[in-house]
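User: quick one - fold this with adenosine-5'-triphosphate bound?
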Amino acid sequence: MFLMSGTPAVCPLGNGPAYVRLDNVSKFFSSARAVFQLTVGIGKGEFFSLLGPSGCGKTTTLRLIAGLERPDQGAVSIGGEVVASADTWVSPEKRGIGIVFQDYALFPHMTVGQNVAFGLKGCGRAQAKSRVEELLELTGLAGLAGRYPHELSGGQRQRVALARSLAPRPSVILLDEPFSNLDADLREELRRETKRILKEQGATTILVTHDQEEAFSLSDRVGVLQGGTLEQLGSPAEIYHRPASRFVADFVGKADFIDGTVEDGTVRSTFGSFPLDDSAGIGTKQVELMVRPDDVSFVPDAAGQATVTEARFLGASVLYQLQFTDGRAIHSIRPSAEVTPVGSRVSVKVDASHIVIFPKDNA
Ligand code: ATP
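Assistant: Sure. Structure tokens for the protein plus adenosine-5'-triphosphate:
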């Protein structure tokens, strides 16, 4: 059980040398701040995601790295070279970056082969032809070189966009919500494929997404943005199990927040009392306990402290709402092999090792 009383100490530049680096970068549009004093380092070959709600500054950050926006403050470096600062500017085409956009941005009048070859202008004909063939093979598009974009499915178009961005062998690939136009099954398959291809190519990848499942399933590390600043940086597991703030806890995964009190090293709440690992100097405090549904289990028990008030069948699992006698409710997710009917009285158990505690704002 953890008490989060501030952002955990993490090095925003990572532990190893950063390949892509933002140092104290800010970007304003008129008076609105899109990105504010952002410092983050992404290691060579890392798959990194910027995760956050609409308008938090994800795309602007990506555009600052690509050179499609100039920072108002701070510096951007790639491969140890400053590419944007108060007195330096390296144009986008000289940054060694490939970009895949949400709408793929393919040239409609060019075939698949011509689209992929677009960035290979400096190469000899034979070399370009062999690179295009290699990429079409890699992305599962062999045989489709002569088709036009309108003759392809959404998934195939996304693969062409990926192949085109990889053609000039960029050291950094930026992905701006590239899977959001695809249906669920295809999205899952293409995420896995894309990760395999990018890891195989050794590319440093930065993905922008508002979808936490996508960020978690693909990334080595995730940066959660809010209001243009970094709210938390860590591995997917750290962000899920140890959210640094109430905002991250709420944004990432489903969670219930239950009022409680810390007193004499113990947390008391509706669903039980638990010893707090490190309560030194806390005294008495009003807190909120964050409980994830996967950490809540229950068994039918006529003398139990809660009642099942809702059971939502999700396929492999069932999401239950359990209401305590004082009216408070929490959720529990359980395998769907056995369904406990609504109205059942149950005894609830919460895995205390995963509970995270936040001080109440006004406490
Ligand atoms: P979304 O997920 O909706 O794409 P985002 O997290 O990528 O959002 P940004 O597109 O980076 O967010 O925008 C951050 C903030 O900057 C928003 O308030 C947006 O309205 C503003 N903004 C972005 N681009 C411009 C622009 N060219 N002119 C004015 N304001 C802009």
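One thing worth noting: The chain has a mean pLDDT of 88.
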